[in-house]
Design goal:
Blueprint (H helix, E strand, L loop, with lengths): L2 H4 L19 E3 H11 L4 E4 L6 H9 L3 E4 L3 H15 L3 E5 L2 H17 L3 E7 L2 H5 L10 H5 L5 E4 L6 H13 L5 E7 H5 L1 E3 H7 L14 H12 L4 E5 L1 H5 L3 H11 L3 E3 L19 H7 L2 E5 L22 E6 L11 E6 L2 H12 L8 H23 L7 H14 L4 E5 L2 H9 L8 E3 L9 H12 L3 E6 H7 L3 H6 L4 E7 L28 H6 L3 E5 L2 H14 L3 E6 L25
Helix pairs in contact: 2-3, 2-8, 4-5, 4-19, 11-15, 13-15, 17-18, 17-23
Bound molecules: adenosine-5'-diphosphate and magnesium ion.
Length: 587
């Protein structure tokens, strides 16, 4: 019997008077939250301790859960989100009230935007005081604030409702289009006591949390008809396809249909980027010249130019088929002539069944067009990747890391930055599913260390984190977390002294330019401060050797890779989104 269980609280509604004098085992809110999570197979919590959830974290650890404590809630939240993407089970982030909650909210909103299942659990202050706005410690109406930023938000006032609340949160996070869920747990809830047996009976083990969604046969027939008539068909694989874990079916779809495919960033590696039908390196041609496009778990948002404009060739030249679990995604940007609503596994299985044995493969001239374009692009890039001089530029440094991933295809690559992101996406080939984790739908900076921690914790695989120096700064303090848990994470900071470039100056001569940092900073020493390995490198060969040593040893490592401060371009590949003033003011 635990200390709490020895208490007898006869004021609790569940204690009937008839049984009042019999010794009764009790439980409380703390235990019920932990029991509810454990009952549903949740093994890990990412969070930051503090009022009122300090004991929750401690007790969860004592009960055998893995509790990973971060230095800032945003990174704990990002860890939970990517754990959700990697496992299809909701990642849990635990925070304190108001400020901690707000810090976690960016990650929750980002998870929702990216369709990653996570549950943000935050403690909150006393309802009576918060609602009357009487100035409580960390007073904030957290539920109201979270609501528009996630799929669902719940608050629990009674210990007896914890089981139902956790079940609802799990279902909301993983069913249909996955996303973020907020669970508000006021401080008072944790110490609420109830009969242990009634408490156990109140818990819910969620059965079939993300039920298969079978597509309609008519939708499959319509999609097959479109594909059959296509002359230049193309498959676009999105991170929904990676999330679905229908890897074999994705391969079968591509290989049975013989249709070339373009992977979105986090779908890279679903099939190896070196696959003969990969048109990744001929992306522009593939999007522009295709006639029928099958989207598999990819949205026609800004990352695909909304399905229109120059990227997609002549107006009206495209017919889109879309597989998605969310019916309302259809026609969101352009007309979808064959919507296939369902989970990707079920949809691909049905398409393949419809294709049967004798499906004709895509026309040879189209495949050949893309193949030769791809080879030309690869050949053009090759010399840039092989330069072994100092200072490094993005291409030569990434050339070295490209070889690392080729030699270690099961390593997980985390990637953020501007040039560091855009160029790495194209240069580093991926070979296995769900190995590339990056800034996703928003292009958010600051996911690096949170993603790295969760990738290591959830998979046990080595993690290579390729970070722009600016991007790294958003979550850099979490190197302490990486050292504390001794995680096999190797961070490479592409240090070009600033954002985009390190060469800007303040026209007035007073301050550093807005986009530059301390020149030639030694990020490697941050890692050394916490007992990890630091290295400073200036050539691609040195970089490769340092990364290999880190990956072999599994020790937390940070490699400061000196990049030519003049090498980057403004906003990487998305300079067109960055408005620039054309008005010159008279001095
Ligand atoms: P990308 O940025 O890689 O193109 P998106 O995030 O835009 O990918 O799109 C992912 C899509 O996948 C979302 O529209 C989401 O609804 C969908 N999705 C997620 N999981 C599944 C699933 N299991 N089955 C079908 N669609 C899914
Ligand atoms: Mg930089």
């Amino acid at each position: 019997m635990s200390a709490v269980a020895k208490l007898i609280d006869t004021s609790t509604a569940d204690v009937s008077t008839a049984e009042a004098d019999a010794p009764m085992e009790l439980t409380d809110g703390f235990h019920l939250v932990i029991d509810a999570l454990k009952l549903n197979g949740i093994k890990t919590i990412y969070g930051v301790p503090g009022i009122p959830i300090t004991d929750l974290g401690r007790m969860a650890q004592a009960e055998g859960m893995r509790v990973i404590s971060f230095r800032h809630e945003q990174h704990a939240g990002n860890a939970a989100a990517i754990a959700g993407f990697l496992t299809k089970a909701p990642g849990i982030c635990l925070t304190v009230s108001a400020p901690g909650f707000l810090n976690g909210l960016t990650a929750l909103a980002n998870a929702t935007t990216n369709c990653f299942p996570m549950i943000l659990i935050s403690g909150s202050s006393e309802r009576e005081i918060v609602d009357l706005q009487q100035g409580d410690y960390e007073e904030m109406d957290q539920l109201a604030i979270a609501k528009p930023l996630c799929k669902a938000a719940f608050r629990v006032l009674h210990a007896a409702d914890i089981g139902i609340a956790v079940a609802r949160a799990i279902r909301a996070a993983v069913s249909g289009r996955p996303g973020g869920v907020y669970l508000d747990l006021p401080a008072k809830l944790f110490s609420q006591v109830m009969d242990a047996e009634a408490g156990a009976a109140s818990l819910v083990k969620v059965i079939d949390a993300a039920p298969a969604q079978i597509p309609a046969p008519s939708a499959i027939a319509r999609a097959l008809e479109e594909l059959k008539n296509a002359k230049r068909p193309l498959i676009v694989l999105g991170k929904g396809a990676a999330y679905a874990q229908a890897d074999e079916l994705v391969r079968e779809l591509v290989e049975t249909s013989g249709i070339p495919y373009v992977p979105m960033s986090m779908a890279k590696g679903l099939l190896p980027d070196t696959h003969p039908l990969s048109a990744g390196a001929a992306r522009s041609t593939a999007l522009k010249d295709s006639d029928v496009v099958l989207l598999v778990g990819a949205r026609l948002n800004w990352l695909l130019s909304h399905g229109k404009g120059k990227t997609w060739g002549a107006p009206g030249s495209k017919r889109f088929i879309q597989i998605d679990i969310e019916p309302r995604e259809m026609d969101s940007n352009v007309e979808i002539v064959a919507p296939v609503v369902g989970d990707i596994g079920s949809c691909l299985a049905a398409l393949l069944e419809g294709m049967g044995q004798g499906w004709k493969t895509a026309p040879a001239d189209w495949i050949e067009t893309l193949r030769s374009k791809r080879e030309a692009n690869v050949a053009k890039m090759a010399p840039k990747l092989m330069k072994n001089t100092a200072p490094m530029d993005f291409h030569s440094a990434l050339g070295a890391l490209r070889t690392v991933i080729k030699e270690r295809p099961d390593a997980i690559l985390v990637n953020e930055g501007a040039n560091t992101l855009d160029l790495a996406r194209g240069i580093i080939d991926m070979y296995q599913p769900r190995k590339r984790l990056d800034v996703g739908t928003w292009g958010i900076m600051g996911i690096g260390m949170g993603f790295a921690v969760a990738a290591a914790v959830e998979t046990g695989k080595p993690v290579l984190c390729v970070e722009g120096d600016s991007a790294f700064g958003f979550s850099g303090m979490e190197v302490e977390t990486i050292c504390r848990y001794n995680l096999p994470v190797c961070i490479v900071v592409f240090n070009n002294n600033g954002i985009y470039r390190g060469t800007d100056t303040d026209p007035t001569g007073r301050d550093p330019a807005t986009t530059v940092f301390v020149p030639e900073a030694r990020y490697d020493r941050m890692m050394e401060a916490f007992g990890g390995v630091g290295a400073h490198v200036t050539t691609p060969d040195e970089l490769k050797r340092a990364v290999d040593a880190a990956m072999d040893s599994g020790k937390p490592t940070l490699i400061n890779a000196a990049i030519d401060p003049a090498a980057g371009s403004e906003s990487g590949n998305i300079g067109s989104l960055n408005p620039q003033s054309v008005v010159k003011k008279k001095k």
